[in-house]
Amino acid sequence: xxxxxxxxxxxxxxxxxxxxxxxxxxxxxxxxxxxxxxxxxxxxxxxxxxxxxxxxxxxxxxxxxxxxxxxxxxxxxxxxxxxxxxxxxxxxxxxxxxxxxxxxxxxxxxxxxxxxxxxxxxxxxxxxxxxxxxxxxxxxxxxxxxxxxxxxxxxxxxxxxxxxxxxxxxxxxxxxxxxxxxxxxxxxxxxxxxxxxxxxxxxxxxxxxxxxxxxxxxxxxxxxxxxxxxxxxxxxxxxxxxxxxxxxxxxxxxxxxxxxxxxxxxxxxxxxxxxxxxxxxxxxxxxxxxxxxxxxxxxxxxxxxxxxxxxxxxxxxxxxxxxxxxxxxxxxxxxxxxxxxxxxxxxxxxxxxxxxxxxxxxxxxxxxxxxxxxxxxxxxxxxxxxxxxxxxxxxxxxxxxxxxxxxxxxxxxxxxxxxxxxxxxxxxxxxxxxxxxx
Length: 438
Description:
Blueprint: H1 3-21, E1 41-46, H2 50-61, E2 69-74, H3 76-88, E3 95-98, H4 101-109, H5 117-121, H6 124-127, H7 132-135, E4 139-140, E5 143-144, E6 147-148, E7 153-160, H8 161-167, H9 175-187, E8 191-194, H10 203-215, H11 218-224, H12 234-248, H13 265-271, E9 275-281, H14 283-292, H15 294-298, E10 301-304, E11 319-322, E12 326-329, H16 335-347, H17 352-360, H18 371-375, H19 380-391, E13 396-398, H20 400-403, H21 406-420, H22 426-437
Parallel strand pairs: 1-2, 1-3, 8-9, 11-13
Antiparallel strand pairs: 3-12, 4-5, 6-12, 7-9, 7-10, 7-11
Helix pairs in contact: 1-16, 2-17, 10-12, 12-22, 21-22
């Protein structure tokens, strides 16, 4: 369907969906309770895709037949509180960015975001361009409430090729090989894995991948669903035990709990040859490796997927990380604003120019059929790797702290840190998390 055709369909399908979405929600008599003018689509977003969105805003607003959009960018840390306060007061924007998962579900449960399902159903050729595993991150109970707008960011293993060559060690693809590599690297005085323990959140990647490899995605799905005693699943306990075995084997070296992940220190250990590997998100490639050590990144940095675990039932193509950031539409906005916002989300975001500009920043859009654009990018090998593992993922698990509600996520960070510091047992971790969940 062309853009004009989609807009005609949207006038019916979106409006019908919005009428359902606003039942029981406060709205002022002007039909424009979102912050800003009633004839403007206000958009709140965290920093990160600023220039791409600014260009999209300029192109979209240059058209004579659209309601203009006005994008406002916020720093990440204060954003969640500001957004929560504004939406609760009926003063939120028309469109806001989020990370899907538990945060989005909270807004959906409160009736504060509008469903995008009817709009996507009316334009299946647009819906089907998005990687299914990524689009799932914007769904709640199988219904679409968020659509992605930036690059996909799976967590991968980075490694120093020269370190492995000098040590005569093969890059591991199984957990048994990983533990063997840890022992061999330790003997040569090399820290096997760098990790920013002081920031705590890098710990999440280990428990997420190991749990998936052992028990499959259903294990954490049960946690997210709030099923009784879900944290005491044997796969989670075994995963925590394997983490502690890795710690005890010297897998992270000494002092890993004082390393700050937010200052590029873990990456520096890899590109200076002091550490062999790092488990980290795709954001580390352009955000740290390429900017801090471009020569090493071009000739010396390798990457691979997380190892398999013998006897595990998880699909080895499964990945974890940040699927993308998602845009959602507030239910308190007027029907005209919601229709205009949805028009932009489906036709302005991820059009050809948007995709080209996003790729130029080093990001990999979660959009099928753009292999030629990926191959023509400045980092084709890296971008193709990220594109392929994201597109082919049997399951793309959103980072656990984003998938859970805020309180349970904080309890997870606290207790997982204790697992890494060997101050609680895997069983105590599971018990503590069950208590936090209930």
